[in-house]
Amino acid sequence: MKTKKTATTLLLMISIFGFSQQKSKIQPKSFSTKDKIITVYTSADSTNLRLSKTDNLTFSDLKQPVETQVCIFVNPDKTYQTFLGIGGAITDASAEVFAKLSQDKQQEFLEAYYSKDKGIGYSLMRTNIHSCDFSSDSYTYIEEGDKDLKTFSIDHDRKYKLPLIKKAIAMAAGKMTFFVSPWSPPAFMKDNASMLKGGKLLPEFYQSWANYYVKFINSYQKEGIPVWGLTIQNEPMAVQKWESCIYTAEEERDFLKNYLGPTLKKAGLGDKKITIWDHNRDLMSQRASTILDDPETSKYVWGIGFHWYENWSGGEMMFENVGKVHEMYPNKNLLFTEGCVEKFDALKYQLWKNGERYGKSMINDFNNGTVGWTDWNILLDENGGPNHVGNFCFSPIHADTKTGELIYTPSYYFIGHFSKFIDKNAKRIGSIASRSQLLTTSFINNDGKVITIVMNQSNKKITYNLCVGTSSSEISILPHAIQTLVY
After folding, report:
1. Residues 96, 235, 252, 310: which is the catalytic one?
2. Residue 299 forms part of a structural domain
3. Which phi and psi angles does 452 have, rounded to 5°?
4. Which controlled-vocabulary keywords does the entry list (predicted)?
């Protein structure tokens, strides 16, 4: 009887212990502002402040803000998507310009992007599968007409692109999420017999083109470059004067379902993350619905990629479309795959609104569920190239190849306010502004540090309260400034 009673007591104690353990997992410790110091970093128009440490502040009590107080409300207990990273594309153009720099400037450049301490800590990277507009010419990895890919070789990339990619990954201590995108299949595989000006992939070459991705991924991985994922086609609804290829939503769905997905899986590359669309926010919901509503295709899809060029029509950026797609398909990831300031003009290197375009987009995209954000070229020359069709653009850093100097634009610093401070696997948390002049987003890193970004869109200095629960700190932000608060 006593043995039975002891066993029952022991069982009860184990159950209570197990329940308490389970409860502690369900209810993580709440964030506390006690003894926290807020370190403020600022970049501001018409000043010398560029990712500059401008304040160390503390919290005090503020139980109930009033309507006359401007507030940023942060709720670390409300968590959303997991952060993947921020980075840019290493194109042929970027690699060719990099090769022209002195060794000292190359080192400065690598640290500026890929060092978390000395630079802004990029952790995401994209590159082109054979040529794109930001290449010095059109090229493929096979001889024209070789549908069996017997001549496949990435030797072209060994001169410029592969060395830069390897150096960037090394500077980032190997912590790089690397994905790849094609701009066009080889000319003989298309109905317009050209890599340029749109055209479509001919059905008889669907399998050959799917095999091409496998060859590329395997070739890069043999070089010691782990390929995390791929997009199916860059801008599949744009007929461009450069490398381009058109897929309707149904065509992209069927190519993925019947060819690319099974081919990658059969080749042992089923773990590669496949991103669909890779074009502007305007049509992304139609593309997502067509592909993801088909269960056989959806199983291959990691996420939906998007660009920011939908304002070509004269309208505003369609940030809300990102949020709506996230609501429709909450189990799929959203990835910003490309954006840059178009129409290069050397007189506008330091145009502040170019940087503000980045800040506004990044805050809105993250608040709408985006997990990662990828800029376009990491480096271009003093002409906004090289580019074999004259489509010259801005990048966050330019190199003047005549003087050998690097030119840092506002875009570099705006991106840095996010990438330098938010760590991989951070969680986005609740962050809301009480006034439309301010934009904000917040993340909590795995070490428990909160990162809050605040952007002032107005022409006036604003004093606001950073409110976390019933704690607050009064902070000032200059006109047209962006701040990162670390606490």
Report:
1. 235
2. yes
3. -115, 125
4. Glycosidase, Hydrolase, Signal
* Strand, helix or coil for residue 176: coil
Strands 405-408 and 397-400: antiparallel
Query: pLDDT exceeding 90 applies to what percent of the chain?
Result: 93
Instruction: Give the chain's domain count.
Output: 2
Digit-coded pLDDT (tens) for 261-306: 999 999 999 999 999 999 999 999 999 999 999 999 999 999 999 9
Based on the domain organization, do 71 and 202 belong to the same domain?
A: no
Which residues is 397 bridged to in the sheet? 379, 408
Is residue 12, in this structure, part of any structural domain at all? no
- Residue 74: name the closest of 418, 364, 464, 359 by CA: 464
Whole-number average pLDDT of the chain: 95
Which amino acid makes up residue 201?
A: L
Q: Are residues 253 and 339 in the same domain?
A: yes
Using an 8 Å Cβ cutoff, are 270 and 243 in contact?
no
> Domain containing 61: what range?
37-81+429-486
Give catalytic status of residue 310 as yes or no: no
Helix, strand, or coil here: 456? Answer: strand
Q: Is residue 21 part of a domain?
A: no
Residue 159: CB atoms within 10 A of its CB come to: 12
Q: Angle 177-179-122 (CA atoms, 0-180°, nearest 5)?
A: 40
CB 114 within 8 A of CB 76: no
Q: Looking at residue 474, which CATH number applies to its domain?
A: 2.60.40.1180
CA angle 464, 468, 469 (to 5 degrees): 125
- Residue among 96, 243, 252, 338 flagged as catalytic: 338
- Summarised one tens digit per residue, pLDDT across range 200-246 is 999 999 999 999 999 999 999 999 999 999 999 999 999 999 999 99
256 and 170 in a common domain: yes
Are 61 and 139 part of one and the same domain? no
Q: How many residues does the chain have?
A: 487
Is residue 247 domain-shared with residue 267, that is, in the same domain? yes
338 as an active site residue: the answer is: yes
d(CA 232, CA 288): 13
Same domain, 395 and 457: no
